[in-house]
Amino acid sequence: MEEHLSLAEAAERLGISERTARRWIKSGKLRAYKPGRDYWIPESALTELVEESEVSPKEQAPPPEPSLFNGTLDERRFAEIGELLERRHARRLRQVENPNDPHFRDAAAAANWIADVQEEADEVIRWIIEHGEALAGTWEDLGMMAGVALFAETPVWLGEQRLEALGEPDELTARRQKKTAANLEESRQQLETAVNG
User: Fold this and answer.
1) How many angstroms separate the CA atoms of 11 and 22, rounded?
2) Within a 10 A sphere around the Cβ of 17, how many other Cβ atoms?
3) Of the candidates 29, 74, 68, which has an alpha carbon nearest to the alpha carbon of residue 52?
4) Where are the chain's structural domains?
């Protein structure tokens, strides 16, 4: 018989909040049963969700959103984004360097933290590819912005060292971490191509 997880267990395994898990259940994104008051999520539902969310590199990207900058150079916005990235980087370093940080209570939590950092970096890089030239003004400025966007490398490396000390995460969490690492690497290559021509 297939193992069923509680809402809290499923949310932890997916690295999301219970509230998000409830929303996903109500929207049909996450399959669950509610025989009484509590939700029960089959193990296979988690696997299906992860597999459905995997992105194939050959898939057509959705059309880009219209630029927020209307083609004008906005140096103040460029500086604000750089400062935001620096603050995020500092926060992630504080988390990974704190021996009592709850993100590193066990291997699954650590692997989910690493995947979150990788997803965040991937989103930033994809945004820079889409909007960066209008924001930075030149490809040289974009190259500097790309350097700031690679902020995730040090926290991820430190997080991987902590994960190694904690042991192996469960299969689903390990798969998520590998998927986010592959997506991030693909985005980095696209950014390098865009900056270097």
Assistant:
1) 9
2) 12
3) 29
4) 4-53, 75-196
